[in-house]
Amino acid sequence: EAQVTQNPRYLITVTGKKLTVTCSQNMNHEYMSWYRQDPGLGLRQIYYSMNVEVTDKGDVPEGYKVSRKEKRNFPLILESPSPNQTSLYFCASSLTSTSNYGYTFGSGTRLTVV
Amino acid sequence: KNEVEQSPQNLTAQEGEFITINCSYSVGISALHWLQQHPGGGIVSLFMLSSGKKKHGRLIATINIQEKHSSLHITASHPRDSAVYICAVKSYGGSQGNLIFGKGTKLSVKP
Questions:
Q1: Which of B35, B48, B98 sits opposite A100 (nearest CB)?
Q2: Which of chain B's residues have a Cβ under 8 Å away from the Cβ of A50?
Q3: Res B1: pLDDT
Q4: Residue A1's pLDDT band (cuts 50, 70, 90)
């Protein structure tokens, strides 16, 4: 089944404790992206990647890191999480960034930083 | 002003009613997407449009590029249609591949 798999689905952590949210797709998509969703603000892009070893900042990159060492994986790293990073996170992928293809979203990761 | 505006923000309907959700945008776009987010949180892509009209089951999506406006219609609505519907556009400018999202329309269909 074609899908984007995010893990974990739920995570409660403490301020400052490094964490990684994994994202993997099995569709050979070039484009992958991370979003956060907050009440009243909608979905906002954190980072995106147009292909292996090519990543760039989105609208709200502060406090996050990403890497794209393989085509299928695009982990989101929070080196020192803070309470304002409590949010619902989505990973998404698309065949390419330049043509009009649909997007496939992961199931989401609900992160709470205390 | 947001680049993508949706209306209404909230919508309550009775089962069987015809529903329309509107999306207006202010940027040049290459495509517009309609997404559905269920109460469990997952996001599903419903339609991608660059012109005209698309239909899938009871859902119809239209776009008017000149007026920078799109509508999502649901015919014979059902309680299982209750969800948040999100409009997103892929703009020509800005970061490549980025989607700009509306804030969503929360639909509740009562039996």
A1: B48
A2: 96-97
A3: 62
A4: confident
Asked if residues A98 and B95 have their Cβ atoms less than 8 Å apart, the reply is: no
Q: What letters, b where the CB count within 10 A reaches 16 and e where it falls short, cover A38-48?
A: eeeebbbbbbb
Q: Which residue of A has its CA nearest to B9?
A: A40
CA B38, distance to chain mean position in Å, is 14
Q: What tokens does B50 get?
A: 């660059």
Angstrom CA distances, A97 to A8, A19, A82, A100, B62, stand at: 26, 28, 31, 8, 23
Q: Do the chains contact at B99 and A31, CB–CB below 8 Å?
A: no
Put simply, the answer to whether B43 touches A108 (Cβ < 8 Å) is: yes
Q: Is the pLDDT of residue B96 over 70?
A: no
User: Which token pair is B51?
Assistant: 């012109």
Q: What residues of chain A lie within 8 A of the CB of B86, using their CB?
A: 42-43
CB neighbours (10 Å) of residue A65? Answer: 14
* Mutate which: B23, B25, B43, B85, vs A, most A CBs within 10 A: B43
B78: three-class secondary structure by DSSP: coil
Q: What are B4-59's pLDDT values in tens digits?
A: 999 999 999 999 999 999 999 998 888 999 999 998 778 999 999 989 999 999 99
How many whole angstroms from its chain centre is CA B111?
23
- The conformational region for residue A23 under phi > 0 = left, psi -120 to 50 = alpha, else beta, is beta
Q: In this predicted structure, what is the pLDDT of residue B97? A: 63
